[in-house]
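Whether sequence alone determines local backbone shape is best considered at the level of individual chains. When preparing material for the folding task, we compiled for one chain both its residues and its backbone structure tokens. The sequence in question and its structure tokens are set out directly beneath this paragraph.
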Amino acid sequence: KISPSEGMGVGAGMGYYSLSCAMISSKVGTSLGVLALLANLIREVVTIGFAPLIVRFFGPFGLLAVGATTTCTTSLPSIMLCAGKRFIFLAVINGIALTILVPALILMIL
């Protein structure tokens, strides 16, 4: 039983689980903060674990979209193996840009 804006706030974490969890917990409550933590951890596990399938069905840019902020850190090796070395630069830029945007997006949505 969460509102649409709360759901969008959880989604706006984009894999940045440490910051989004803390921001959402302090702004809305701990239960929604825990949900944000779980959603972002699941996003990271799916990105790393299902990278070959994501690339097969959605292409390399789909993998960058699913990975969100993690594309410049933890999921970068999976991106390199499954999407190719030519996507490393795009993955790093994607991850950095989204990492910068996450705090502002969460504050705007919530």
